[in-house]
Amino acid sequence: MTDIREIVEKALEKGNGILNLKPAWVARDFLPPGRRLGLPEKDYDVGERGFICERWLASVTKADNATGPEDEGLSYLANIDSKQEVTLKSAVDAAGDLIMGKEYSKTHKGLGRLAKIYDFGARIPYHIHQMEKDAKLVGRNSKDEAYYFPEDVDTGPHPETFFGVHPYIVDEKKYDILLPYLVEWKDDMILQHSRAYLNVPGEGFFLPSGVLHAPGTALTIELQEDSDVFAMLQALNAGKIISKELLFKDVRKEDREKLGERVILNQLDWPANGDPFFYENHHLPNIFIEETRQDGGVEHWIYYNTTKFSGKRLVVKPGQSFTSKENGVYNILVWRGKGTYDGHKIEAGNFQCDELLISHDRAVKPLTVKNEGKTDLLIIKFFGPDINTDVPKIKPYKR
After folding, report:
1. For strand 195-198 and strand 231-232, is the pairing parallel, antiparallel, or unpaired?
2. Where are the alpha helices (H) located in 156-230, listed in sequence order?
3. Where among 263, 283, 303 does a domain terminate?
4. Alpha-carbon distance 81 to 4, whole Å?
5. Do 201 and 347 belong together in one domain?
6. Do residues 67 and 177 share a domain?
7. Which CATH number belongs to the domain containing residue 358 in this structure?
8. Counted domains in the chain
9. Would you give the end-to-end CA distance of the chain in angstroms?
10. Is residue 297, in this structure, part of any structural domain at all?
């Protein structure tokens, strides 16, 4: 760990408080790929592991797949003066104070969030992410999450997401209406009990743990809690029956033996699932940030409604610059355009320089973002828990 800390110290010194990161590719075996991640065509198929369908960003989280490399999902430091490969997780473990700041690292064990791009050629099966009370039973974290659907990208064949259940199911306490689909495990008809909402490019949704959802095929940039827990409730998807083991993936053996399929129904947040104003209470339109308005560019909140994580979209005009100053450590993905980020070359689609992590000590001081291209430079900023405590909240909508 001492050696790793020294490597991190040198990397931060070399990068003036900024770390370059390598892409972390993640395979899934229950869905076809959307093939929109910028990889060569031959690289999507990874045999028994399935297909590369996700890219995890500044990740300290291991992908919870049945097969695959031990480091799947973990990000690695790039451009370091060492022959030793260093994961971001080991860097944070060894030098959390240098990356996250002395005070923040005293109260937070790690970065505490996971950012990713997911890219599927079919709708993701209807599923939940366990709430904290259930996730901790298997030693895991809950998984609140939020979506942003980037613009100027093909949205795929099914750009609509099913959320929750029809309100009457909760109003009349007909919870067992879903049980036969879990027991029989033969089709996708469970979706008839849910509502679908369009994936609108440039917008998104906030989704708390315990809420059923079947995400559509729009390419999605997601920010979530640091977790990979889930329970799949839909048997048939993309023309094949998926393993029923995915229903019980994060359930204790004794609970499965005692309750069977019903155990999953007990893990749902029923009031949230049956909210008749689900759209109004979970939709995330962009919110313009007046405080950072500059001639060279503008920012919008795109991930908000929680202090567990948050995120912004920064757009810098061609030939212009933008001064950025934040409350703490964050990472960026360069989505469109090219330029420099505090002197670091950045370019969308170039996996050598489209992903950076800005340490706390550098983030809290002004740094300059320059657009050196002929089109807008679009950058996504991702923040972990309690970095932006004043992030906007959705005003609850009730009749």
Report:
1. unpaired
2. 167-171, 179-184
3. 283
4. 11
5. no
6. yes
7. 2.60.120.10
8. 2
9. 56
10. yes
Residues 230 and 353 in one domain: no
Q: Let me know if residue 199 belongs to a domain.
A: yes
- Residue 181 forms part of a structural domain: yes
- Spatial CA neighbour of 55 closest among 368, 355, 393: 355
Separation of alpha carbons 170 and 268, rounded Å = 11
What number is the average pLDDT over the span 84-107?
97
Residues 260, 348, single domain; the answer is no
Does 87 map to a domain?
A: no
**How would DSSP label each residue in 244-263?**
GGGTSTTS-HHHHHHHTTHH
- The 10s digit of each residue's pLDDT in 9-45 is 999 999 999 999 999 999 998 899 999 999 999 999 9
Structure tokens at 302: 């795109």
Measure Cα distances from 387 to 58, 71, 309 in Å. 16, 27, 8
Q: Cα–Cα distances in Å, from 204 out to 72, 150, 218, 284?
A: 27, 9, 11, 5
Domain of residue 331 covers 286-383
**pLDDT for residue 1 is more than 70:** no
Residue carrying the six token digits 């959705």: 394
pLDDT digits (tens, 9 = 90+) for 158-202: 999 999 999 999 999 999 999 999 999 999 999 999 999 999 999
Q: Let me know: does 238 contact 199? Beta carbons within 8 Å.
A: no
Write out pLDDT tens, residues 65-84. Answer: 889 999 999 999 998 988 88
- Using the 8-state DSSP alphabet, how is residue 48 labeled? G
> Which among 309, 36, 317 is positioned nearest to 150, based on CA atoms?
36
Q: Do 256 and 150 belong together in one domain?
A: yes
Q: What's at 144, amino acid-wise?
A: D
Residues 116 and 178 in one domain: yes
322 strand-pairing partners: 369
Per-residue model confidence as pLDDT tens digits over 317-327: 999 999 999 99
CA angle, 19 as apex, 144 and 143 as ends, to 5°?
Answer: 10
Q: Is 367 in a helix, a strand, or coil? A: strand
Determine whether 138 is exposed, middle or buried from the number of CB atoms within 10 Å of its CB (0-12, 13-18, 19+). middle
Does residue 2 carry a pLDDT above 70? no
Which of 239-264 are b and which e, b meaning 16 or more Cβ less than 10 Å from the residue's Cβ? eeebeeebbbbbbeeebeeeeebebb
Instruction: Note whether 30 and 246 are within 8 A (CB).
Output: yes
Which alpha helices (DSSP H) does 178-308 contain, by range?
179-184, 253-259, 262-265, 270-273, 278-282
Judge if pTM exceeds 0.85. Answer: yes
